[in-house]
């Protein structure tokens, strides 16, 4: 008998302890010291853009989250963005397309949300060759700073018109 495909569910429907366990397995115990956590701050994730994939035994195999963040320009004005990630897949399930499925589900949710207006720009820290398939690029983020170490070619943006954002600024938690 064929295995059933994992089911996409809202992350709010998943036990938070299961999410934390998956994140620890995917990224290691020191994950909370990463720069992405400093960028997000202590804001809650955005439920409409955060999902889990569960297998036929209802075990969590992958997650994606989105967070409200801002790019603060040199004049001190905050420009809202959505930070994508982490995209986490159990190590033994990596390479099976779960990350792609989550990225596409989130893009579809953004499309639904953005039908009336263009969705907010999205930013993430990740591998350009992988996330470039979903429209993310480091072409516009070279003048941005973060509250911790990062590699410039891994700070990626997806935005229909990046000219709406300042070329220089600091990415950090949304304080709105």
Notes on the structure:
It is built from four helices and eight strands, in the order βααβββαβαβββ. It is an alpha+beta fold and 176 residues long. It has one domain: 3-Layer(aba) Sandwich (Aminopeptidase). The longest helix is centred in the middle third of the chain and has 16 residues. Strands 1, 2, 3, 4, 5, 6, 7 and 8 form an eight-stranded mixed sheet that branches. Pfam families: Acetyltransf_9. It comes from Alteraurantiacibacter lauratis. It is an enzyme of class 2 (transferase).
Characteristics:
single chain; 176 residues; alpha+beta; Aminopeptidase; 4 helices; globular
| DSSP helix fraction | 10-25%
Task: Write down the secondary-structure element order.
Answer: EHHEEEHEHEEE
Radius of gyration: 16 Å
Low-confidence stretches: none
CATH topology: Aminopeptidase
Largest sheet: 8 strands, mixed
Which second-level CATH architecture applies?
Answer: 3-Layer(aba) Sandwich
Number of domains: 1
Number of helices: 4
Please give the CATH class: Alpha Beta
Assign the structural class, choosing from mainly alpha, mainly beta, alpha/beta, alpha+beta, or little secondary structure: alpha+beta
**CATH homolog superfamily:** Gcn5-related N-acetyltransferase (GNAT)
Q: Nutshell version of this structure?
A:
One of its GO terms (molecular function) is acyltransferase activity. This protein is 22% helix and 27% strand. It has 4 helices and 8 strands, in the order E-H-H-E-E-E-H-E-H-E-E-E.
């Amino acid at each position: 008998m064929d295995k059933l495909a994992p089911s996409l569910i809202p992350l709010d429907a998943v036990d938070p302890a299961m999410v934390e366990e998956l994140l620890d397995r995917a990224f290691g115990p020191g994950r909370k010291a990463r720069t992405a956590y400093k960028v997000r701050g202590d804001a809650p994730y955005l439920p409409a853009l955060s999902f889990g994939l569960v297998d036929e035994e209802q075990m969590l195999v992958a997650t994606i989250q989105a967070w409200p963040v801002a790019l603060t320009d040199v004049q001190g004005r905050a420009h809202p963005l959505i930070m994508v990630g982490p995209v986490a897949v159990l190590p033994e399930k990596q390479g099976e397309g779960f990350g792609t499925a989550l990225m596409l589900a989130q893009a579809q949710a953004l499309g639904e949300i953005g039908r009336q207006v263009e969705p907010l720009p999205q930013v993430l820290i990740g591998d350009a060759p992988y996330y470039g398939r979903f429209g993310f690029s480091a072409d516009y983020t070279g003048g941005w700073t973060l509250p911790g170490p990062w590699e410039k070619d891994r700070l990626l943006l997806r935005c229909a018109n990046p000219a709406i954002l300042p070329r220089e600024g600091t990415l950090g938690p949304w304080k709105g």
